[in-house]
Design brief:
alpha+beta, Heat Shock Protein 90, 5-stranded antiparallel sheet, 25% strand
């Protein structure tokens, strides 16, 4: 089985977020396994995972401020840490986003209020991983002291796993 892979490594800075979304969406459309709505889901998954990577790298840079800025006075070189990969298979599209942040425990995150709870309207952060979990057909989040890896797969409609398989 042939698998096409596109890899992108960019600074973990907000101005590269649109590029990551564009590369993944464009790659997913090369061999259109997914309809436009699912490509939008994929774009949102990448956006949330990359935003988390950018924040993780910002936090890591803050904890390493004792090192001072780079020779040119910026911290840009230390920001080169976000990797995005998109794989086109025969029946699914996979995306991987990796950072070199400090990591976190995905199971220790605070639970969000139910969508029917009025207090949910005050929640402005912490929706990224729940969105990734909801929009993906399969996903895996691994994190440790050397960084975080988010993997998500979206199946072509004809190849989608049965609902009880997830």
């Amino acid at each position: 089985m042939k698998v096409d892979v596109v890899r992108l490594e960019v600074p973990a800075l907000p101005e590269y977020l649109a590029l990551a979304r564009m590369v993944v969406a464009g790659t997913a459309r090369i061999d259109p396994l997914l309809d436009d709505e699912r490509v939008d889901d994929l774009r949102l998954i990448v956006s949330e995972a990359c935003t988390n990577a950018i924040e993780a790298m910002r936090d890591r840079a803050s904890s390493n401020d004792a090192d001072g800025p780079d020779a040119d006075g910026t911290d840009r070189d230390r920001a080169v840490a976000m990797r995005v990969e998109c794989r086109l298979g025969a029946s699914r599209v996979e995306v991987v986003v990796e950072d070199r942040g400090n990591g976190f425990d995905p199971e220790a995150l605070d639970a969000l209020p139910s969508v029917t709870d009025p207090s949910r309207l005050t929640v402005e952060r912490g929706l990224g991983l729940p969105l990734i979990r909801t929009l993906s057909d399969e996903y895996d989040i691994t994190s440790g002291s050397t960084g975080t890896r988010v993997w998500a797969a979206l199946y072509a409609a004809a190849a989608a796993p049965p609902p009880d398989a997830l």
